[in-house]
Amino acid sequence: MAQPDPYFLGYRQAEQQRLQQQAQQLAEEADWLFDQIGIPPGAHTLEIGCGPLGCLALLAQRVGPHGMVVGVERNEDSVQLARQYIAEHHLPQVEVRLGDGKATGLPRESFDLAFARLVLVNIPEPERVVDEMMALVRPGGVVALHEADWSAHLLYPPLPAGPRLFQLLEAYSQLNGIDLFVGRRVPSLLRAAGLIDVQVRPLIHVYPPGHGRRLIYCQFLENLRERLLAVGLVTEVELTQLMADLKRHLDDPDTLVVSNLFFQVWGRKPG
Asked: Is 6 exposed, middle or buried (0-12, 13-18, 19+ CB in 10 A)?
């Protein structure tokens, strides 16, 4: 049996590039969420699983030169890329630390906001991250997440290979203790951690031809190719054919591509 993997999609260079692009693609949604929370100048903020960029720059704009942004990321290459971005864009209020989002080692009750985006859907034991975020915010502070639920992804016309491809992804996630449907659980995870005034915003998108996220499942499968083969879930011949069928279907401009369901969820620590 596979050992629990720290991050579902791995850390290939292509994944680092995808995450950097994702930071730009999802910036508008992050700005909307930060508007709802209300992050004042001078605030102390934290991003768990920031990757090579995440929302570090957006948070830096909000807190200003007298605030603080701390990113925690477990992958060394991602940390170095994030630090390079910070240096190049002259963001002295931002610090990125190598660490585990489940046990950051940061001072308890020292942040006004703890935020994570598309982290829980990629790791085992997501409730431990929520508990850590809860412990890190001050009384009255906010914990906020942007998470995915794979239930809604749709291709139309349907791809005959689609059920088999999704079965592979779901089987691999289950082997590694990862819940691809965690998005629907996030409100209850926040309440179980003790947060109050929990708010929920659902999101779903269409990815037309040329959209930067239209081929995202091709990217996911390429990231996971070696892992899927290593645990014997599929043969190389079958996987190559499945991926070619998917790419051909997505390249057809008449194929409707609908995203997963996403949830932005935030709540306040009592006090």
From this structure: middle
Distance between CA 222 and CA 218 in Å, rounded? 6
φ, ψ (nearest 5 deg) of residue 30: -65, -40
- Least Cα distance to 190 among 251, 255, 141, 144 occurs for 144
From residue 171, give the alpha-carbon distance in Å to each of 15, 124, 192, 232, 238.
21, 14, 28, 11, 16
Domain boundaries, the chain: 13-151+177-206+262-268
Task: Name the pairing type of β-strands 44-48 and 68-73.
Answer: parallel
Q: What is the DSSP string of 192-232?
A: HTT-EEEEEEEE--B--TT-TTTTHHHHHHHHHHHHHHHTT
Residue 104 one-letter amino acid: T
CATH superfamily of 13-151+177-206+262-268: Vaccinia Virus protein VP39 (3.40.50.150)
pLDDT tens-digit profile, the chain (271 residues)? 444 445 666 666 777 788 788 888 889 999 999 999 999 999 999 999 999 999 999 999 999 999 999 999 999 999 999 999 999 999 999 999 999 999 999 999 999 999 999 999 999 999 999 999 999 999 999 999 999 999 988 999 999 999 999 999 999 999 999 999 999 999 999 999 999 999 999 999 999 999 999 999 998 899 899 999 999 999 999 999 999 999 999 999 999 999 999 999 999 999 9
Give the residue among 269, 17, 33, 18 at the shortest CA–CA distance from 147.
33
pTM: 0.93
